[in-house]
Amino acid sequence: MSTPYRKPLKVNEFADAVGWKPATVRQKVWRREIEYMKIGRSIRFRPETVEKILEQATVPALER
Asked: Could you give the number of structural domains in the chain?
């Protein structure tokens, strides 16, 4: 069984998905703080990277 193909995200699409400004995304790419792909001269992101960033940013609720 193959996994369904999901299109790589452009900088603006990635920024919208994680709630950052495109300039912040570019800065994090330049500093190598987030994973990215180079396709020719373009920067692209895997959809899984969005999920990973959102998971890392999630603060669990306190159990009472």
From this structure: 1
Whether 56 is in a domain gets the answer no
Hey, what are 26's tokens?
Answer: 């570019």
- Concatenate the DSSP letters of all residues of 12-64 into one string: HHHHHHHT--HHHHHHHHHTT-S--EEETTEEEB-HHHHHHHHHHHPPPPPP-
Residue-number span of the structural domain to which 45 is assigned: 11-51
Q: Which residue has the higher pLDDT, 1 or 60?
A: 60
Looking at the chain, how many residues does it have? 64
Q: What is the structure's pLDDT at 3?
A: 63
